[in-house]
Amino acid sequence: ISNNDLLGKLQNLQIFSESSLNQNGYIKFLNGLIIQWGFISNGENGVIKTTNFPLAFTSACFSVTTNLYGGIAERANTAITITNITKTSFKTKHYDIYGCHWIAIGI
Fold it and tell me: What is the pTM of this model?
């Protein structure tokens, strides 16, 4: 089933009000729950980077999780830290990675 077919079937169920099915995207459910996702490309080690959500949360972002995309296997300090989560963005600081995928949940 293609993304467009799936989107059409979900719209027919009327369980969400809007969506953006891109690499950095979101789905907003009728009950107000919002799930967002994206990719953060690598940057300079130790530099704080701000990532804006594709859609601002109405009330709050409950959680942001990340999955490292790559790193230098020989080093033990491959890591990413998430801070300053707001309704519109979050900040990351990383070491020895090529980027990360993220998912955020809120209302």
Answer: 0.79
